[in-house]
Amino acid sequence: MHHRIVIIGGGSAGISIAARLLRAGQDDVAVIEPSDIHYYQPLWTLVGGGVSSLEHTRRSEMSVMPKGVRWIQDSAVEIDPDQRHVEISSGSKISYDFLVVCPGLEMAWEMVPGLKEAVHTPFASTNYVAELAPKTWELVRKFRGGTALFASPGTPIKCPGAPQKAAYLSADYWQKTGTLAGTDVIFATGAGGIFGVPEFAKVLSSVVERYGIDARFSHELIEVDPGRRSACFEITTPDGKTRQSIEYDIMHTAPPQRAPGFVRESPLADPSSPFGWVSVDRHTLQHTVYPEVFSLGDVCNAPTSKTGAAIRKEAPVVVANLLSVVDGKEPVARYDGYAACPFTTARGKMLLAEFDYSLTPHPTVPLVNTKKERTDMWLLKRFGLPFFYWNLMLKGLG
Q: In whole angstroms, what is the distance from residue 398 CA to residue 352 CA?
């Protein structure tokens, strides 16, 4: 098979790109995507917080696939950018003139021994797996006090604020039910602080204080003993590294994440990245070696947060620059690193942290101070953003 433009991945990035290309008049576009179900993953936090249902986060992949796109329902297993083809699991090879790589990330459970086994016990869960997000809410709802551990890696993950959101929504529920007083809420993260943008970090620090959360930074989860309900952390200090184990009654975790194997093992991967991110120019999102290849979303090495909001701003840049290359021109559209993290700090309150490569606030909502917790921002998270996603973003309209 041969297609003029091949897109690997039918998630937020891939469907948005395909829709925009069709609207731009490209009539030979193929999307390689194995899944039958398409998820709006940002709502998994609210599923884990008991505010939404998993059913509200999913639709059939067929329903979001743009009409006119060739859907190759299979998994990519190898990319050969020198021969310009992608091999799929059936053994077929799809050749291309231009390639967009956006397959998302894979959960690297094996990087933390015991972690995968732990989330399948009755005492731990994660909102990073669709089927486990409802379990998070069950753990929170039935909890009657003790140690509640929320762990987050310091390495890049999609929606890096999600582990905090899980802690805040849980603490808010326990506060309302009277359980918080008898609970030690520990948020342990490999990151060096609560957030990288000072203006938003100040607000989030007040949220941590309000709930009495024990926030521990530079704590990287390295091993879990599910039987003993014990999590071992490597702690980095100016004096070196030490280890500490924390026993928990319940735990929510975000697993380490990385590029899929067929990306990590391809010539497209950044050789300096241990996670196999696709190497791109941070502004044009064109591959640094292969000019006919572009990448966006969670899998590329653009130094921004891996969020759906980043994809929303990356997609028009990729399409504009891809079309320029198709016409034999240089890419001129530029991505400024915009990303957004909607921090649900309580039921009915949200802080919308918007920023760019400069790590300074980059507000986009007119006449609204989004640098503080707001009820209208909660409504945006709960209702506005899902509507925008299904009806505009995936159709190439926003």
A: 18
